[in-house]
Amino acid sequence: MQKKIAIIGAGASGCMAAIVAAKNNCIVTLFESNDQIGKKILATGNGRCNISNNNLSETYYYSESDVDNNKLIHILDEFSFENTRDFFKELGLYFTIKESMAYPKSGQAQSVVNILKNELERNHISIRLSERIKKISVTDTGRFELKTSKGLEAFDSVIIATGGISSVISGSDGDGYYLAKQLGHTVVDTCPALVQLKCDGNFWEQISGVRCDACVTLADSSEYGELQITDYGISGFPVFQLSLKACRRLQNNEFLEGYIDFLPDICEDELKEILIKHNLEGLLNPKLAEFLFKKYILSKDINVIKKFRITVNGHNGYKNAQVTSGGVSLTEVDAHLQSLKYKGLYFTGEVLDITGKCGGYNLQWAWSSGYVAGMHASKT
Q: What's the rounded Cα separation, in Å, for the pair 232 and 196?
């Protein structure tokens, strides 16, 4: 008899899990509260979809759960970057690599969603849009009863792939955490991640809109990349990376101070020689150059350029965050992401307490965890 599997959430990990389970001769029903699948995929990589990263390692991931890294390594190994690339190539979607970051060759996130939708339909997966799961109950026989916004149905296995509570476009509002708690699972406190940071000071409006390559140091870490200055503080690639730990520290009411090196490729001695003869207009955006040079003239301190002090006092919230940090504790799932409380219950993707850095790592986690859950749910 064919196994009936319900997958809650038609994002990246949910779609992957559905396709894998269906290919293993299961009857799969995919529930999605939105009116279309893959809404968050469409927003990744500024609409180009940073689908993965060929420099894949557990060191690019962060978790609050006290868990052995071997569990994460095992999942990333079971469905690696190469497996992801080959999976999509088989479906007709090819990758292009830029600085280790993988994108669809079309340059369009919509291509990824279209490819997934076609494969879901080709495998006769029932896609139930605009249908929310309100409750999951476990019967005496070990089956799962799902109370939806449209009725009651029973399944042999359930995969919760609802995502987190970040990003306006995703439509996810934390349903997965609610369902996990219903079933007795621990949910590590959530906070926004990969998000802009707010800083003390009334000067930010003067330099708002400036973009420059810089090195930002915060929360015992340093990141280099294109910094974007806003009227409330800082944004851009290095800030998103640092926000993984910074937002957690803000949540714990820790004082968060750091600094920006606006000219990381020029040493202090060389910069001092330059400033004897010139201002900063030949080195930086004119707006930023004028601002920093005035500070240097007043203080004669090179650190206003090389170690510009910042104090972070907040973040830009879940609606602007790319992902959610926290979630279902990794200590309560096995190496195949099956619940240690209920056989046949699985968790994938962002609903788990695992967060990747910018650069395709979170989507790769979605593909890897979705594959592992879908494969093992179809066999157990």
A: 9
